[in-house]
């Protein structure tokens, strides 16, 4: 009988329960996947705590992306048993989610992965790189030779953004909170990496750009980082709001955007799945091409067995991890 981590009540990771889940023989139009790796995302913590905008009914299995093998697929779905895939999964009921040994996904949310891609890379590939692609290219209209400032560059979201910006011909400045994390940023391709605990990134960015500032600022942090970013965005620059891992949602005086004619744009990738799914497919093709060319590759900084999910979530929450954190089965 497959096991899964189950949220019975909202709160902290310590309240999760690792239990057997009664298998279902009917896919009901879904693809059944034997999970080999599951990605850990910041919004998993928010869902477990009940503070994310998407609130599954209790009980549910957390986790939204997996890599694994197809066990059963609906006819005409394009999948068959044994296919190596990645999938984005919802948290509707106990037979979905990612922190589990067996999950189910809508066929249009399942993608075959190349032989060269491991299951761990598959579980780390989709959401972070899709978010980066839409944030940089569609929302920020990234141009070659733009200067891109990526905050929290050593995390899963940031490391993907660094690689995508470099692949587009941009110059990348990245911030992180320790020397070990700065090394990750440089390994991902950052031209300049600075410790936000020791350096004033506003002054560094201005100096590095001859006073111009960053053309694009990719911000998954929010809070004080966003506030300071408005001080070093270039004329007609674009600040992409990706999330608020700092815990504080910043506010902005509308008059301030007039000073340098800059834009603040939001990126909620999930809305594209609902309103423009054809753009998701186009993005997927481009990302796999970049992967095949060796221009992007998921950085998995921490792996742990599925049974250790609570400990890994604790490490993730306390910012002890770099890159993508992965649970393996």
What can you tell me about this protein's structure?
- The protein has 329 residues and is α/β, with parallel strands linked by helices.
- It folds into two domains: 3-112 and 299-328, Quinone Oxidoreductase, Chain A, domain 1, CATH 3.90.180.10; 127-270, Rossmann fold (3-Layer(aba) Sandwich), CATH 3.40.50.
- It is 29% helix and 25% strand.
- It has nine helices and 15 strands.
- The strands form three sheets. Strands 3, 4, 5, 6, 7, 14 and 15 form a seven-stranded mixed sheet that branches. A six-stranded parallel sheet has the order 10-9-8-11-12-13, with helices on both faces.
- Strand 14, helix 9 (309-317) and strand 15 (324-328) form a beta-alpha-beta unit.
- Helix 2 packs across helix 8 (277-292).
- The longest helix has 21 residues, at 119-139.
- It starts with a strand and ends with a strand.
- Order of SSEs: EEEHEEEEHEHEHEHEHEEHHEHE
CATH superfamily placement of the largest domain = NAD(P)-binding Rossmann-like Domain
Spans of at least 5 consecutive residues with low confidence: none
Bulk shape: globular
Mean pLDDT: 95
Rg over CA atoms: 20 Å
Number of strands: 15
Q: Bin the helical content.
A: 25-40%
Q: How would you describe this structure in keywords?
A:
329 residues, Quinone Oxidoreductase, Chain A, domain 1, Rossmann fold, 7-stranded mixed β-sheet, globular
Q: Which secondary structure elements does this structure contain, and how are they paired or packed?
A:
Elements: E1 3-6, E2 17-20, E3 31-40, H1 42-49, E4 65-72, E5 84-88, E6 102-105, E7 110-112, H2 119-139, E8 147-150, H3 156-167, E9 171-176, H4 179-188, E10 192-195, H5 201-208, E11 214-219, H6 223-229, E12 233-241, E13 263-266, H7 270-275, H8 277-292, E14 300-305, H9 309-317, E15 324-328
Parallel strand pairs: 8-9, 8-11, 9-10, 11-12, 12-13, 14-15
Antiparallel strand pairs: 1-2, 3-4, 3-6, 3-15, 4-5, 5-7
């Amino acid at each position: 009988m497959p096991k899964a981590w189950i949220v019975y009540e909202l709160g902290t990771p310590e309240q999760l329960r690792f239990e057997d889940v009664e298998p279902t023989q009917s896919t009901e139009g879904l693809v059944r996947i034997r999970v080999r790796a599951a990605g850990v995302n910041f919004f998993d913590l928010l869902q477990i705590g009940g503070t994310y905008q998407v609130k599954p009914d209790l009980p549910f299995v957390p986790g939204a992306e997996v890599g694994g093998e197809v066990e059963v697929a609906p006819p005409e779905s394009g999948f068959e048993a044994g296919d190596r895939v990645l999938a984005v999964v919802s948290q509707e009921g106990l037979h979905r989610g990612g922190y589990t040994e067996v999950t189910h996904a809508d066929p249009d949310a399942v993608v075959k992965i190349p032989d060269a891609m491991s299951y761990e890379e598959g579980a780390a590939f989709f959401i972070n790189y899709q978010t980066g692609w839409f944030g940089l290219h569609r929302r920020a209209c990234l141009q070659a030779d733009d200067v891109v400032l990526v905050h929290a560059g050593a995390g899963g979201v940031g490391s993907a953004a660094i690689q995508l910006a470099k692949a587009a011909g941009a110059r990348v400045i990245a911030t992180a909170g320790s020397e070990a994390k700065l090394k990750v940023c440089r390994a991902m391709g950052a031209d300049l990496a600075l410790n936000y605990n020791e350096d004033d990134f506003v002054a560094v960015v201005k100096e590095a750009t001859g006073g111009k500032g960053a053309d694009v600022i990719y911000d998954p942090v929010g809070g004080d980082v966003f506030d300071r970013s408005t001080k070093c965005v270039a004329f007609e620059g674009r600040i992409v709001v990706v999330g608020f891992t700092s815990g504080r949602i910043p506010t902005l005086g509308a008059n301030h955007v007039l000073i340098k004619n800059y834009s603040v744009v939001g990126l909620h990738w999930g809305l594209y799945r609902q309103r423009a799914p054809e753009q998701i497919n186009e993005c997927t093709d481009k990302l796999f091409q970049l992967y095949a060319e060796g221009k992007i590759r998921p950085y998995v900084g921490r792996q742990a067995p599925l049974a250790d999910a609570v400990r890994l979530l604790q490490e993730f929450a306390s910012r002890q991890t770099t890159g993508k954190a992965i649970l393996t089965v």
